[in-house]
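Hi everyone, sorry if this is the wrong subforum. Our group has a chain we'd like a structural model of before ordering constructs, and none of us has done structure prediction before. Sequence below.
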Amino acid sequence: MVNPVIVISAYDRLESLTELLKSIALSDGRRSKVIISVDGGGDPKIAEKERYLEFNLDIELKLHTKNLGLRQHLLYCGSLSKKYGSCIVLEDDLVVFPGFYRYVTRALSTYKNANFIGGISLYSPKYNE
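Answer:
Right subforum, don't worry. Here is the predicted structure as tokens:
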């Protein structure tokens, strides 16, 4: 079974980040490691680890001193798959459904040997637009 880390790209949307963390805490991904990557120049309140204790999640903060910009920051977040084997990259303005982690781990297990798959999406225009 594959156990990807959850990587959140954050900058200055504290309220929406809080909602995302609430949804993770109520999901089947609540036991996964959560890395919050904060781009340089963002809201300093996002960097306060004490703020996240209420969620009872294994959270690691990665604080960038330099502003990477959206593209570079998302590329950095995705590159953590090299270190952890696989990762789920979420932007700070999302929420997840309760079974998202099981869906991802099953999809990763199903396609682990398929070299023609570059990523698996949790987004569907059928439901999200």
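For your construct planning: The helical segments are 14-25, 69-84, 100-110, 125-128. The chain has a mean pLDDT of 89.
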